[in-house]
Specification:
The strands form 3 sheets. The chain has an 8-stranded parallel beta sheet. The protein has a 7-stranded mixed beta sheet with strand order 3-2-7-16-17-18-19. The chain has a 4-stranded mixed beta sheet with strand order 5-4-1-6, with no helix packed on it. Helix 4 crosses helix 7 and helix 7 packs parallel to helix 8. With about 475 residues, the protein is an alpha/beta fold. The two termini are about 35 Å apart. A hairpin with a 2-residue loop joins strand 18 and strand 19. Bound molecules: N-(aminocarbonyl)-beta-alanine and zinc ion (2 copies). One zinc ion binds next to loops. The site of one zinc ion has 3 residues, from loops.
Length: about 475
């Protein structure tokens, strides 16, 4: 048999099911052997005192997304995926936003052109359906599912993006027929418009009022409505970026009725609060995202959701803008009202360290749950399993060596994204990736990015058989 290209020796391999001391043999970019005494190899990587994890999959990332007049996203595919790699993620699922009047195929052409030759990690696209014409819904979507794009996102808020319930029902029906999974951004658009107008009339325009304009009931109502629409069609959905216990309760109640509703939360809902939006001057703009971070009780609730399985997915919702930038958070209109502060914060590089440190190191979750939340469940729900998201013979050799004892202070200085700040500045973490491998190639070692733009490949994804019970997706 041909000699192994690489053996990762002496580490503790973690999957969503097990924690096992064994070596990992790699050939041709894939894992070909697991066990002891795997024989000679061209390269031996010493993994003593390291956890050997499947590469992280961040299934909620915005890169190079056009943001409308005068606003520019801080990350293109090069800087955003380089940051992902340095933070231990080897796959990102980014968004392809359809512009009004544009077909989804036209939009995809632009996003593929933006990613081509630039990505440091593997990537796929979720389709944001913003202009659901009969042709887009009836013809394009089913064909695109067959072509490797089996997930869509629909918005219940945002000017120019919010779909009516009727349009959401139409998209859900296509998803049911084609086997796609729909992500829902659940916030009530009219309620936000009403509250925003009222706040502005009162002169309450500082960044902190962004949170006031989208309180928990706005999210809870839309979550309930999205679930109801999915129930009518009989199709699974993912409620993305869930921030609070009332929305979680809607997910729990739906599951109790036998519905397949999956939940995603993000670092900002575990470690930030609305107090962060109340900084001096415009500083709060650094934390403006939707839904907004809530209070300590909501943080606690989200942790319970992480621990008990309400959440299947832990993603970053990386949506970066520069702060000191007239095309970013401090654009000319932003001082006149929070309405004009672009929504979104960076987080693709800090996702794994924050969950490991706050979750595993503080004993809220175990290692297998960490892997499920950060890699395996993303692969299972979005059509990449078992190629991605696990350490198994036949899977891509996307592997992270993780030092569980490494202490770091998160700081803009050590990050690789295109934003000029991190909302987690000064946050202490325990646990950091020391080596990241993409299909057998080491792309990060000791904080240094060794990979190149173009190492990452586009991933054509499959439709899945949705797990018939929640317990088969989470552990
Ligand atoms: O504020 C946020 N989350 N921006 C990103 C867009 C979205 O809704 O996911
Ligand atoms: Zn969203
Ligand atoms: Zn998002």
């Amino acid at each position: 048999m041909a000699v192994l290209e690489c053996v990762i020796r002496g580490g503790t391999v973690v999957t969503a099911a097990d924690v096992v001391r064994c070596d990992v043999g790699i050939r041709g970019g894939r894992i070909v052997a697991l066990g002891d005494e795997l024989g000679p190899a061209r390269e031996i990587i010493d993994a003593r005192d390291r956890l050997v994890l499947p590469g992280g999959i961040d299934s909620h990332v915005h890169l190079a997304q056009p943001m409308g007049e005068g606003i520019v996203m801080a990350d293109d595919f090069a800087s955003g995926t380089r940051a992902a790699a340095c933070g231990g993620s080897t796959t990102v699922l980014s968004y392809c936003l359809q512009a009004k009047g544009q077909t989804l195929r036209e939009a995809l052409k632009e996003y593929h052109a933006a990613a081509e030759g630039r990505a440091y990690v593997d990537h796929g696209f979720h389709l944001i359906v913003a202009d659901p014409t009969p042709a887009v819904v009836g013809q394009e979507l089913p064909a695109l599912v067959r072509d490797g794009y089996p997930s869509f996102k629909v918005f219940m808020t945002y000017e120019g993006l919010a779909l009516s319930d009727l349009d959401i029902l139409r998209v859900l029906e296509v998803a049911r027929e084609s086997g796609a999974l729909v992500q829902v951004h659940a916030e009530n658009y009219d309620a936000i418009r009403f509250l925003t107008d009222r706040l502005e009339r009162r002169g309450d325009v500082a960044p902190k009022f962004h949170a006031t304009s989208r309180p928990i009931p706005v999210e809870r109502e839309a979550t309930h409505r999205a679930i109801t629409l999915a129930e009518l069609i009989g199709v699974p959905i993912v409620i993305v970026h869930v921030s609070n216990s009332e929305s979680m309760e809607e997910i729990r109640r739906a599951r109790a009725r036998g519905l397949k509703i999956y939940g995603e939360t993000c670092p900002q809902y575990l470690v930030l609060t609305e107090q962060d939006l109340d900084g001096l001057g415009m500083e709060g703009a650094k934390y403006v995202c939707s839904p907004p971070p809530r209070d300590r009780a909501s943080q606690q609730a989200c942790w319970e959701g992480i621990e008990t399985g309400v959440f299947d997915l832990f993603s970053s919702d990386h949506c970066p803008f520069r702060y000191e930038d007239a095309r970013g958070k401090l654009n000319p209109k932003a001082r006149s009202s929070f309405r004009w502060v672009p929504n979104g914060i960076p987080g693709v590089e800090t996702r794994l360290p924050i969950l490991f440190s706050e979750g595993v190191a503080k004993r809220r979750i175990d290692l297998t749950r960490f892997v499920a939340l950060t890699a395996t469940n993303h692969a299972k729900l979005y059509g990449l399993y078992p190629r991605k998201g696990t350490i198994a013979v036949g899977s891509d050799a996307d592997i992270v060596l993780w030092d569980p004892g490494c202490e770091r202070t998160i700081s803009q200085k050590i990050l690789h994204h295109g934003a000029d700040y991190t909302p987690y500045e000064g946050f202490r973490v325990k646990g950091w990736p020391t080596l990241v491998m993409l299909r057998g190639k080491t792309i990060v070692r000791d904080g240094e990015c060794l990979g190149g733009a173009g190492d990452g490949a586009f991933l054509k994804r499959e439709t899945c058989d949705w797990p018939s019970s929640r317990s088969s997706i989470t552990n």
